[in-house]
């Protein structure tokens, strides 16, 4: 055996194809496991940070809310889990995958409708914004009160007109004609003594005593007429 054969025999043979594939798969698996382990540790660390922040928020008791930075859904779900476990309210705002973020509130002091409206529309909520919207509500209430008062004054001003024949004519002219409506309006004008019913339409204005006396007189007259009729028949 010469020197060359000796050297070739001492060298390791190249791995077969199956062994190379097994080695590559093993390395990939180990890399994936390391990545999963790193992600798990990262999420665990993030949860601990969230628990600390929420714990401080609860102990403080003066802050109206606790806002987190925009983040992926996986991290927001951890915030939600920690907040709900602590008995708090949590809302998310913004577009998913772009700028969606979470805000935590206590059960007793949730967000106002104004805050929800501003945040959902992409705005920034702050003490200055809250004061601005509070002033807007005050102005709106003042304007609403003015509108109500103006409406009352308008109704008082036109109250007599609404009770007059003009109103009656306008209301019923399309049903019974202009002339008939006007005539009906004149007949139903306000009567100071009997309200809206004309005095000439009253059927009987006699007292009870007078009415009873008239009835007795009618009965007496009827009896006299009957007696006179019977006497005339006897004479015949």
From TrEMBL:
Segments passing through the bilayer: none
Tree of life domain: Eukaryota
A family per Pfam: R3H
Domain R3H residues, every copy: 44-107
Record GO terms (molecular function): nucleic acid binding
Entry-linked InterPro entries: R3H_dom, R3H_dom_sf, SPAG7
Chain residue ranges for the region called Disordered: 1-45, 192-212, 217-236
Ranges of biased composition (kind: Polar residues): 7-21
PROSITE patterns documented for this protein: R3H (PS51061)
Basic and acidic residues: bias regions: 27-41, 222-236
Name of the featured protein: Sperm-associated antigen 7 homolog
Organism whose genome encodes this protein: Papilio xuthus
């Amino acid at each position: 055996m010469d020197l060359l054969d000796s050297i070739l025999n001492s060298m390791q043979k190249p791995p077969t194809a199956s062994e190379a594939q097994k080695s590559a798969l093993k390395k990939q698996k180990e890399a994936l496991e390391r990545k999963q382990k790193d992600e798990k540790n990262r999420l665990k660390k993030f949860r601990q940070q969230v628990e600390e922040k929420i714990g401080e928020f609860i102990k403080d008791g003066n802050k109206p809310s606790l806002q987190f930075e925009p983040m992926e859904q996986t991290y927001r779900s951890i915030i939600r889990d920690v907040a709900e476990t602590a008995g708090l309210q949590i809302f998310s705002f913004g577009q998913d995958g772009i700028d969606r973020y979470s805000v935590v509130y206590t059960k007793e002091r949730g967000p106002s409708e104004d805050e929800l409206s501003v945040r959902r529309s992409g705005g920034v909520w702050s003490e200055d914004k809250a004061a601005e919207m509070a002033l807007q509500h005050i102005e709106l209430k003042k304007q609403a009160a003015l509108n109500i008062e103006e409406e009352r004054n308008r109704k008082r001003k036109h109250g007599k007109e609404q009770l007059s024949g003009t109103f009656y004519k306008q209301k019923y002219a399309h049903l019974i004609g202009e002339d008939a409506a006007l005539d009906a309006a004149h007949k139903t004008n306000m009567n100071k003594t009997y309200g809206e019913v004309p005095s000439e339409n009253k059927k009987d204005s006699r007292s009870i005593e007078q009415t009873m006396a008239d009835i007795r007189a009618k009965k007496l007259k009827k009896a006299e007429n009957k007696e006179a009729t019977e006497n005339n028949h006897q004479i015949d």
